UniProtKB/TrEMBL annotation:
Residues 1-18 form the signal peptide. The gene is lolA. This is Outer membrane lipoprotein chaperone LolA. Keywords: Lipoprotein, Signal. It comes from Campylobacter californiensis. It holds the Pfam family LolA. NCBIfam families: PRK00031.2-1, PRK00031.2-4. CDD domains: LolA.
Length: 170
């Protein structure tokens, strides 16, 4: 499940760069359907075209996921832990999605490592990303209240790990 999340999270900043956004922020709902189970996540994200991003998950479990060019930092408050992973250990879809092909006026398609991503846009802003991963999970991310090209401060995008949290390096 973590790999699914990381794949998606890496995808959106690259997609934004391909549409020539300097930055994009949005509320999101992510639904993962696996066999007979479904789980939905919601929150807010901030992304810049230099591949720096922050995803704030509000439900069902609060967490923050910070991306920069070298690493991913996941801060899980309920577990009082932070997981730090090198970015080269996860698939980087930034370049693939930057070159996504428009297949309809409001639909783009990107293929990476055998997975097809369908990106819906409205008024030149991404509104939905659909894909099916290698484990046969169907993932749908819906974006709302998008704001493009608004300055996002470095302070917001800098990971904050509270004192006393366990730090796990992967």
């Amino acid at each position: 499940m973590r790999k699914i999340l990381i794949v998606f999270l890496l995808a959106l900043p690259g997609f934004c760069a391909g549409l020539n956004f300097k930055s994009l922020q949005s509320d999101f709902t992510q639904t993962v359907n696996s066999q007979n189970q479904s789980i939905s996540y919601s929150g807010k994200f901030y992304a810049r075209n230099d591949n720096v991003a922050l995803w704030i998950y509000e439900s069902p479990t609060p967490k923050k996921i910070y991306f920069d060019k070298q690493r991913v930092v996941i801060v899980e408050d309920e577990l009082e832990q932070a997981i730090i992973s090198r970015l080269d250990e996860t698939p980087n879809l930034t370049q693939i999605l930057t070159h996504a092909m428009q297949i309809q006026p409001t639909l783009y398609k990107a293929i990476y490592d055998g997975v097809e991503y369908f990106i819906t846009v409205k008024n030149d802003l991404p509104t939905m990303i659909d894909y099916k991963d290698r484990l046969d999970n169907k993932i749908k991310i819906t974006l709302k209240n998008q704001v493009a090209n608004k300055q996002i401060s470095e302070e917001i995008l800098t990971p904050v790990i509270p004192q006393g949290y366990d730090i796990i390096n992967q």
